[in-house]
Amino acid sequence: MTRIINLENKRTEKLFGVSLPQVLCLHWLHLQPDYTTNATAIKDYLQLNASTVTGIIQRLEKRELIVRCPDTRDLRGIQISLTSQGLDLLNEFAESSHSLIGRLSASQIEQLEATIGLLVDGLDLDPTGENTPPPPF
Known about the structure:
Elements: H1 2-16, H2 20-31, E1 36-37, H3 39-46, H4 50-62, E2 66-70, E3 78-82, H5 84-95, H6 106-122
Helix pairs in contact: 2-5, 3-4
């Protein structure tokens, strides 16, 4: 299972320029009213630690797939919203006939998310691979 996830993640990054956890973040935003939520809700959905989610959000924002805006109800908070570019990428990903996630049921996607969360947290991995040291062999 780990090998399949790793291969799919590499393929997704090559084709779409984003990692699977980033796609899952976009997917969660797509499910929210007005395509908006906060970082805590994303963290809970992805079952990843806060620092990992912060990195995912920063990379998505840099690519203009999401935006961060002040929360109008709580000025201390930040809301994260899906942009039209983010929605376009998510739709393109979902339409990909070769996409593993595009062929999975909702319960299988939940299982995949839980597995990715366990792998990232348990092995203390960076899901983007940007800060991952080379293998020791």
